[in-house]
Amino acid sequence: FLRPLAAAASRFGILPSTAAAAVSLLTQQPVQQVALFSASLQATQQPVMDRSLYTVPTDAPVTFLACGPAFEKLSQAEKAYAYHLYRASWIGGLICLHQTSAESPGLFLVLQSVFRRQTPEQLRASCKAGVSDADWDAFLMYATQVLGNLGNYKSFGDTKILPDLSEEALDKIITASEAHASSERVRVAWQRVRAAASSLTERNRQLGLGTAGITSYFSDNCDESDAKLAQAFLDSRQISAYNTRLFKSAEGGSYRIVQASAESSVVAEPTDFTDEASGRSGKFSVERGDYRELMSLALPHLRNAEAAALNANQAEMLRRYAASFAGGSIDEHKAGSRAWIRDKGPAVETYMGFIESYRDPFGVRGEFESFVAVVNKEQSAKFNALVSNAEKFLPLLPWPAAYEKDKFLQPDFTALEIVTFANSGVPLGINIPNYDDIRQSEGFKNVSLGNVLSSSFSDPKTTFLVAEDKDIWIRRIAQSFEVQVGLHELLGHGSGKLFKQDSDGKFNFDPSSVVDLVTGKPVASWYKVGETWDGKFSNLASAFEECRAECVGVYLCDVPEVLAVFGHPDKAEADEVIYVNWLCMARAGVASLEMYSPENGGTWRQAHSRARFAILRALLEAGQGLVTIDEITGEDGKPDLTVRLDRSKISSVAKPAIGEFLKRLQSFKSTCSVEAGRAFFESYSTVDAYFQRLRDIVIARRKPRRVFIQANLSMDSSGSVSIVEYSDGPAEMIRSFRDRFSDEDWGRIEEALWQQWERDLPLMKLA
């Protein structure tokens, strides 16, 4: 009785003491005996949050990622290889649900079960009474976003996705379904997640660690100090964190590090450990078997892909991946990655595993990712030309040769038409593998996702530009972004050396002659045995590295030979591409404020956004009128912004400023100068009162991010493989996920998701 009253009183702003006195009079009880009411009221008096920031409008773009023409050019052998990879990819991709939030697996189970039994049209007929058309459309968009992001948090920005309808309306739709009526498991899952789906609190509105947000990479009782202690333990044992999660005991002090694998076993019995740097201690055990049911289901498809492999490198790659997924060995995955690097110019490209660490609040654990794509040979020719000339372009970067790799290992750089990207989000380009030791000495690959790029710029309208810039933006944004992606991936992520000392005490640089580019003194720090870039810079590493790569892109985009590679030898055309690229970076720095949360001392929710904002600050710091941000009144009478870049000052002001900024970033990274690097980067990515005011305008002008519907593949009894394509829109996203798993497969997948969810729930917090 008292708790609902407390919530109602809070809604109307009634003070706890006043409400307690009122309840005392109503109930004829002394004020001190209604302490429960007062405490409940205190608990509900939180800052009012704008729920519209977390919902997605029903007109948000839901776009089919077309790849049919490219796929049909493959031979039947190539299609069969792609098919088995596709099957393994989507089973593995469901791990992302368990890496997002406690409720994500349950929401996915409910939605899949509902739409496997009824089409959207049939379900609409079941709940016609009492559910408005607006609520129905909002439900379809919510389902689309949960499916498209593989969880109820946005893949770009890490904020919660709320249904834009009431909890009661959402409940009416789900409970009207045949799945809810016929399945006890669906009823239990919905009962568990119903409130969590619509809940919005200061903590659960975004991903984070401890009080800063929620995460499934850690048990709910972990905070950053636990993450640091665990990382120190992992470093001491030379164990990679990429495929792990960390669970702390309820009483504290004891930790389980669990590695992803099909097999379950104990790697290390509970061991006492003390971190000498912090003085903190804990008891650590290491186990295998996280996501074991899903990993087991993916393995047969990996082995089928190995049997269908088109060359020896692909067969070895898949054999090693299977060994890694079976036993949890990152060394096996590294071996598979080496074979993948050797597989030059394949017709079907793929990579899978625990790859990017963007969503781990501590920045070291990889989200599962797997893609299958067809190589676009015509587009790839541009990138191959860039690779061939890379050794000419690297010396143009603003650091001496000692800071560059001893030998540039020419990577494969291909343009891909994505068939499958099983992950929470689909990027525009990738530079992998992320293992420092392989990248430094053996190489890497770059890929540009051509059909993702073309779909992303199919509607090039944008905000925060003056009228005279809009025409050139529309004309050149796709071309400038192609140049930026190429430079970012190849010469951004692919450049620079990490200074290291091996177990024999030998250095990979000359400590007596190499000078720190920031201090001007001899280099005083480097990476010791077992230390990695991600491990040392932890939650700063992704944003720092993305910033470095973005800087390389704009810094080199005016090189005539680079522009010629991308088909822009004409000076007038090239100048437009250069201008739009720099303008895009400045504008992106302002637009990135959408991904900044001022709460809890201020946090950035997206690495690329933080990177671009830091670059904007560096450009503004250059002064001389290079970049101008004006606050204006828009055509709708509401506050708006414009970003201007003085085109005449790109060479004289912008490039020298970014060159100096980039040189410092590289120095901090090469020399493992963690404290100095953190202080430097944080000074440029701090959002002060002025930018917080601009953020309010950016938030008001934000546009929903595009989600992609992906094709499916099918194989008939004769072994012939065909592609299944879709139209745009929420109903098609739902249909694509329903088609993705056969009834037989879904029975096993549902059980695998359920078993993992049952193990996770006692460790996580349903919002």
From TrEMBL:
Entry EC number(s): 3.4.14.4
Keywords from the named record: Acetylation, Aminopeptidase, Cytoplasm, Hydrolase, Metal-binding, Metalloprotease, Protease, Signal, Zinc
One Pfam family from the record: Peptidase_M49
GO molecular function annotations of the record: aminopeptidase activity; dipeptidyl-peptidase activity; metalloexopeptidase activity; zinc ion binding
Location(s) in or outside the cell: Cytoplasm
Cofactor remark: Binds 1 zinc ion per subunit.
Cofactor(s) in the UniProt record: Zn(2+)
Transferase recorded as keyword: no
Main location as per UniProt: cytoplasm
Superkingdom, taxonomy of origin: Eukaryota
Catalytic machinery residues: 489
Catalyzed reactions: Release of an N-terminal dipeptide from a peptide comprising four or more residues, with broad specificity. Also acts on dipeptidyl 2-naphthylamides
Signal peptide feature range: 1-20
GO process terms (BP): proteolysis
Family: Belongs to the peptidase M49 family.
Name this polypeptide is given: Dipeptidyl peptidase 3
High-level lineage: Eukaryota, Metazoa, Spiralia, Lophotrochozoa, Platyhelminthes
